[in-house]
Amino acid sequence: MVERNTVEKKKEAPRGKRPKKMSEYGRQLQEKQKVKQMYGMRERQFRRFFANAVHAQGAPGDNLLSLLERRIDNVFYRLKMATTRTQARQMIVHGHVTVNGEKVSSPSFLVSVGDEVSLIPSALEHKAFMEQVVDKRLNLGIKVPEWLELDKKTYKGRVLRLPVRTDIQAPIEDHLIVELYSK
């Protein structure tokens, strides 16, 4: 019986072969896909948000990021009421979230200055849900953005002002997205 060598040899890349450098279009597309995935959006909806950002006053890239941050699923996530944007989205679709006392079931709902975001009273009664989802995240040392205010005792949040580019901590190169859509 032939003994096998237990140490595997590393596979070497053929000489003279370098990884291809990504084109400018590839970088732009990659940035757009990253932002779409981050906010959990599909192409058609993302294009609609971009069109709204272009028609608003100011820089289109900054407007786009502001609109994306104002979506109710993102606001709920930023208020530390859900562990992920996907979970926030699910809670909204299932009808567990209110804005100014009105139930909201669309994750793309845009909040305005002064809006109050909260859980419905029946969701607050589910102890397991509150302990495993909301309280778990509220007790973490994650800071709520400056444009939002959170009241941990009543599980309510308020929009103090519209988000600006400096409020967004994620490394997003919005100019690449603007260049991609302006072709």
Output the keywords.
183 residues; 44% helix; Structural Genomics Hypothetical 15.5 Kd Protein In mrcA-pckA Intergenic Region, Chain A; 8 helices; globular; alpha+beta; five-stranded antiparallel beta sheet
Can you give a write-up of this model?
By secondary structure, the protein is an alpha+beta fold. Helix content is 44%, strand content 9%. The protein contains eight helices and five strands, in the order αααααβββααββα. It has helices spanning 24-39, 43-55, 60-70, 72-78, 85-93, 121-124, 127-138, 174-181, and strands at 97-99, 102-103, 116-119, 148-151, 156-159. α1 (24-39) packs across α8 (174-181) and α4 (72-78) packs across α5 (85-93). The longest helix has 16 residues, at 24-39. The N and C termini lie far apart (65 Å).
Stated plainly, the CATH topology is called Structural Genomics Hypothetical 15.5 Kd Protein In mrcA-pckA Intergenic Region, Chain A
Radius of gyration: 22 Å
Task: Output the helix-strand order.
Answer: HHHHHEEEHHEEH
Helix/strand structural class: alpha+beta
Strand segment count: 5
In which order are the strands of the major sheet placed?
A: 2-1-3-5-4
- Find the CATH superfamily: RNA-binding S4 domain
Query: What's the N-to-C terminus distance?
Result: 65 Å
Q: Which whole number gives the mean pLDDT?
A: 84
Instruction: Work out the helix count.
Output: 8
CATH architecture: Roll
Q: Which oligomeric form is depicted?
A: single chain
Just give the CATH class. Answer: Alpha Beta
Strand content: 5-15%
- Biggest sheet, in brief? 5 strands, antiparallel
In which range does the helix fraction lie?
Answer: 40-55%
**Regions with little confidence, pLDDT below 50 for 5+ residues:** none
Count of the separate structural domains: 1
